[in-house]
Structures are given as structure tokens and as C-alpha cells.
Amino acid sequence: MESYRSKIFVLTELRDGGFHPISFELLGKGREIAERLGGELCAIVMGNQVGKDACMELIYYGADKVFLYNSELFSGPNIINFKHNLVRLVEEEKPDIFLVGATHFGRSLAPRVAAALKTGLTADCIDLEVDEKGELIQIRPAFTGNILAHIKTKTKPVMTTVRYKVMNACPRNSKRRGAVIVKEAEEPRERNVKFVGKYGTRKLNIADAEVIVSGGRGLGSPDGFNLLKELADLLGGVVGSSRTPVDEGWISKEHQVGFSGNTVKPKLYIACGISGSPQHLAGMKDSETIIAINVDPSAPIFKVADYGIVGDLYEVIPLLIKEIKARKVRKC
Ligand SMILES: Cc1cc2nc3c(=O)[nH]c(=O)nc-3n(C[C@H](O)[C@H](O)[C@H](O)COP(=O)(O)OP(=O)(O)OC[C@H]3O[C@@H](n4cnc5c(N)ncnc54)[C@H](O)[C@@H]3O)c2cc1C
Fold first, then answer.
1. Are residues 165 and 220 in the same domain?
2. Is ligand 1 within 6 A of the CB of residue 306?
3. Is residue 160 a contact partner of residue 111, using CB atoms and an 8 Å limit?
4. Structure confidence at residue 292 (pLDDT)
5. Is 134 a member of any domain?
6. pTM summary value
7. Which residue, 43, 109, 194, 209, has most beta carbons within 10 Å?
8. Residue 273: left (phi > 0), alpha (psi -120 to 50), or beta?
9. Closest ligand 1 atom to the C-alpha of 274?
10. Residue 2: pLDDT above 70?
11. Is there a domain that residue 1 lies in?
């Protein structure tokens, strides 16, 4: 039997019958840390009727062991059920490091677990490193994204939430072997919170979009988003925004890209009338191809853009739309 020097936990997240992609991103980083520390990487699955085959996927993506819970307690987002059972597992297994996704679910759950375990939590990390002493360095933006803070936690486990789309998954390796341990869930005794159901009509999933056409203050009014929507629809994409239009009430917060909004990594990001503040760049600079349209040739967005168009978006975008439509007709 292999003996490990440390134990790293990754909490996976289930979404629409499968694993949320952040689960694989966390396993990718967890694997890197485990290699560095000579550690064992353990994934935790909390769901209802999750098969062992599904858990094997987590092993192919880097886990050494999977703790699998199947219970009706986890069929809804009742956070107290998750918290109670995670705290029990941590007390039993005593991991050194515990990674959770900085999704709505993870952001709600991780602080509760950390508080119950009386350990520290570093939220919203964008990178993790191991120093020469074997201690985890948690890296996250601070002071509105102008500096990157490097944080160490003295208590164990070192708990951290990690932003979606900032880490890379390992390549899938179906030759990897590992164990799936079935665990019994326990119903918490505390009944301070009554779960009444799941509400909400969120449909936009900007973080997973492959094409994003984003607008900023340069749009001048909410109507400008109609033009961006036309371009986004033609490209099979969605509309994004800098914070200014959100603050102005031109578009809803779920469209916001940046430090206090969504982190995105699409194949194509078109920034229209966006200056390129550090807070905006923090959310989109890793996009595969960036096109910027701005009247000001000195706008900082051009420093990160692969293609820059200096011009009025109300002249440039209609030309782009016309050209794309013409090409689509020619293709038919
Ligand atoms: C704590 C904190 C968190 C923040 N979080 C975020 C965040 O998550 N996301 C975010 O985006 N910002 C965030 N901000 C705000 C950020 O600092 C900037 O204020 C914001 O990004 C600026 O938005 P903008 O580029 O749309 O506007 P501006 O900086 O005003 O830029 C507008 C641009 O449009 C150009 N323009 C004008 N007219 C046209 C035209 N007709 N055609 C083409 N170009 C034109 C101008 O040349 C200019 O470059 C945050 C700030 C703080 C303090």
C-alpha cells in the first residue's frame, strides 16, 4: 500500500446530471499539489444516485480516491446537509488542504465548513502554489485587483475556494487506478434553517460561453446592447458587460465580466467601448482571442487585444454584422 505524506481534498459539484467542470479544474490543481507534496488526492461526491462509473471519471482526471455519498439529503441545495457531512468527513480523515470551487454553491458552503472546523478560508483564489517548506500559498487579487496577495493559512485544513476557469484540468487518463469509498450520509440535528425549495430563472451561463460580445460605457445607452446581441447571435455567443452598464442599470449583473463579476475564458471575446480597467481585465484576459473596438487608440484594452479596431462601435459593428451575414449567405 502506498503511504502518503499529506492528504488533499477536492469537493466536486454536480450540475444537471454531471460534474460541473470546476470539479475537473480543481482536480488538475490538486494533482499538481499532490505530486509536489507526495500527497493523496481525494475527491468528494455528494449526490443522489451517483454511480461508481461516474466516480471513475474523477480518478481518470487525477483523483487517487473518491468518497461517494448517495442520499436524498443531497438532492437539493440544502447547504446544511452538505456542511454537516463534510465536517464529519474532515474530522475523520484530517486532510491538510481542502479545495472548493468558488461557485455560488461553494461560496455559500465553504465558509460554513471552515467556521465549524475553526480553520481559515481564503476565498476566490486565482492560483495556488507550494513553497519550498511545502506550505500552500494561496494567491488572490486584493485592493480591487491592483495587487495579488499571497496568503498562508496557519490552521488545518488549509481551506480555499478557487475561481472557475482559472485552473486547467489534467488530460483524461483511463489507465489511472484508484478507490471509490462509499460513505453513509447523516442527517444533521440542527434545524435552524428550513429549506423551502429552489427558485430563480437564471438562464445565462456566461462563464461557459465560447463567444462573448461585451459592451461598456462607450455604448452610451442600454439600446447599444441590442446591437451587441445581434452580433453575438450571429456568432453563436452571448452578451457580456463591463461593470459600468450594470451599475447604470442598462443590463443585469449576471452579464458582468471582471473582478467582481464573472471570470470568462471564451474562444472569442469582443470588447466594445470598454477601456480595459484592471478590474475588467481580471475577468477576461485569458480569453483565447480578444478583439477590442474603441475610439481611443490609447485605451489599455488594446494592450491585451489580439486585434484592435480604432473606431466608433456604432460604425464598426454594423459593418461586421453585414460582412458576417454576407459570408453566411455565400456559404449556403
Ligand atoms: C472593487 C471594484 C470592483 C470592480 N469590478 C469590476 C468588474 O468586475 N468588471 C468591470 O468591468 N469593472 C469593474 N470595476 C470598475 C472598473 O474600475 C472600471 O470603472 C470599469 O471597468 C470601466 O468600465 P468601462 O470600460 O465600460 O468604462 P470606461 O472606463 O469609461 O471606458 C469607456 C470606453 O469606451 C470608449 N468609447 C466611448 N465611446 C465609444 C464609441 N462610440 N465606440 C467605441 N468606443 C467608445 C472610450 O474611449 C473608453 O475607453 C470595479 C471597480 C472596483 C473599485
1. no
2. no
3. no
4. 98
5. yes
6. 0.81
7. 43
8. left
9. 25
10. no
11. no
Backbone conformation region of residue 217, classed left if phi is above 0, alpha if psi is from -120 to 50, else beta: alpha
Residue 52 has pLDDT above 80, yes or no: yes
Q: How far apart are CA 66 and CA 178, in angstroms?
A: 8
Expressed in angstroms and rounded, the spacing between residue 148 Cα and the centre of ligand 1 is 21
CATH number at residue 160: 3.40.50.620
Q: Specify the residue for cell string 440535528.
A: 189
Expressed as residue numbers, the domain containing 133 is: 6-183
Q: What is the pLDDT of residues 157-178, one digit of tens each?
A: 999 999 998 999 999 999 999 9
What ligand 1 atom has the least distance to the C-alpha of 296? Answer: 47
**pLDDT (0 to 100) of residue 204:** 74
Check residue 140 and give its pLDDT. 93
Of 183, 217, 238, which residue is a domain's last? Answer: 183
pLDDT above 80: residue 1 = no
Positive or negative, the CA dihedral 172, 177, 182, 188 is: negative
Q: Which atom of ligand 1 is nearest to the CA of 293?
A: 43
DSSP character string of 63-81: -SEEEEEE-GGGSS--HHH
> Candidates 146, 260, 272, 319: which one to mutate for ligand 1, based on the most atoms within 8 Å of Cβ?
260
Residue 294 CB less than 6 A away from ligand 1 = yes
- Pocket flag, ligand 1, residue 261 (CB < 6 Å): yes
Among 264, 277, 315, the mutation site with the greatest number of ligand 1 atoms within 8 A of its Cβ is 277
125 lines ligand 1 (CB under 6 A): no
Residue 165 sits in the same domain as residue 294? no
In a domain, 155, yes or no: yes
Ligand 1 atom with the smallest distance to the CA of 241 is 11
166 alpha carbon – ligand 1 mean position (Å): 22
- Non-local (6+) Cβ contacts of 109 within 8 A are 11, 79, 82, 83, 86, 100
Q: Are residues 95 and 237 in the same domain?
A: no
